Amino acid sequence: MKRKIGELILIIFFYLLQVTLGRVIAIGGIKPNLLIILPVLFGFLHGKNEGMYVGFFAGFFYDLFFSGLFGFTSLVFVYIGYCSGIFYQKYEETEMLIPLGLLLAGDFCFGFLSYVGNFLLHNRLNAMYYISRFILPEVVYTLLIAVILYKPVTFLNKHLNPTDKRRISKVD
Amino acid sequence: MRKKLASFMNSKYILIGLSALCLLFIATSFFTDKLTTPLRNAISTVVIPVQRGMNYIGLWISDKYDTLQEISTVLEENKDLQAKVDDLTEENNQLKQDSYELDRLRDLYELDEKYPGYNKVAARVVGTTSGNWYSTFTIDKGSNDGIEKDMNVIAGGGLVGIITEVGPNYAQIKTVIEDNSYVSGMLIDTGDTCIVKGDIELMDTGLIHLSGFANSVTVRNGDKIVTSNISDKYLPGILIGYTKDVTADANNLTQAGYLVPAVDFGHLQEVLIITQKKNS
């Protein structure tokens, strides 16, 4: 329970960073997507259920103050958290490239789905422009931020849960 | 083995459950916002005050950062003035912040004079959308301060947009540069109507689309476009921007071109909301 509340506070904190400081740190009008980092990292560090839980609430906040379709981001983030959780049993947390690869794929898929929903269906067929001007810069910027945030988040993850099941099962 | 299978099934069930929940949210928000409005209101009471504070910190940091950059160039040029610079830095920071604020407030005041007929409420911009696709702003005034949906928002000499959503202590502005925004405008001198339309693909140029002029109308670069009197949501006579490169369309019946918005959307910090609505 303590863990869930801790994660929820972390999500709200990231959300606040995203909507307030996002404007200040934007490069060329592109903000990094801080909220997508959480389901990927928690899925990788603590399993599918955790990834889905974090993904659901991160997506919930992402959509909250936007008057589009409410729940779409949650849906995508839940699946991203689940996919990330598949790798939980197989890799150690020192293998940083795995979550970064997952993040790359996840953010790109999310960006592309947003493009399809918001623009392609409104007859904006210039997909290369949207990919090169919005989706890829966001992916790169998000990856950069994730590299910086990886250590603090793993530390927090350990701190929230002193008995990590994966480490124990590795011993026997 | 059984335990492993159980946990596997478990997470699958959770996945299906959460997907169903999300789909339910999507389906309901497609038709009505009855479900999301109470959620937003509940969370906004906690989040908006914090957001206000953090937004202030963010602006403070960027102000500080700018000031520090200026100081480093001065140091390179005048090494012998180092001591004096240090002394003045702190005072300088504070005065600068004050004067920025003073300038902004003065601009707002001038704008207030320009549209004297309308009652206005000033508000601070405290946030943007999470994603990069839209540039919707969140402000720190809501229904508690008399803000209602469809009120017009102005700043820095021109039209910013319109209120699309209101909570007790926050409201959201849909800006005229957004991709799904359409505003009916007219030439200020002749009253010929046109359509002002946001476009995300023009984001880097800072322009938006202008279309629908009749072919007989003469439009020069820099002509003022204001909101038209046939619009059903925008009050007439608010400056939207200046025309640019208006040429005849291929059909030779209409003319289209670009519009330079009067508002600097990149650095929007304070806005004025006109509390009078068009249809009332």
Automatic annotation (TrEMBL), chain A:
Subcellular location: Cell membrane
Predominant location category: membrane
Top-rank taxon: Bacteria
Ranges that cross the membrane: 12-45, 65-88, 100-121, 127-150
InterPro entries per UniProt: Cell_shape_determining_MreD
A Pfam cross-reference name: MreD
NCBIfam families tied to this protein: shape_MreD (TIGR03426)
Family affiliation: Belongs to the MreD family.
Protein name listed in UniProt: Rod shape-determining protein MreD
Species the sequence originates in: Lachnospira intestinalis
The gene coding this protein: mreD
UniProtKB/TrEMBL annotation, chain B:
Transmembrane segments: none
UniProtKB keywords: Cell shape, Coiled coil
Pfam families listed in its UniProt record: MreC
Presence of keyword Coiled coil: yes
Residue span, Rod shape-determining protein MreC beta-barrel core domain: 125-274
Coiled-coil region list: 71-105
Domain of life of the source: Bacteria
Family (UniProt): Belongs to the MreC family.
Function summary: Involved in formation and maintenance of cell shape.
Protein name: Cell shape-determining protein MreC
Organism, as annotated: Lachnospira intestinalis
Biological classification of the source: Bacteria, Bacillati, Bacillota, Clostridia, Lachnospirales
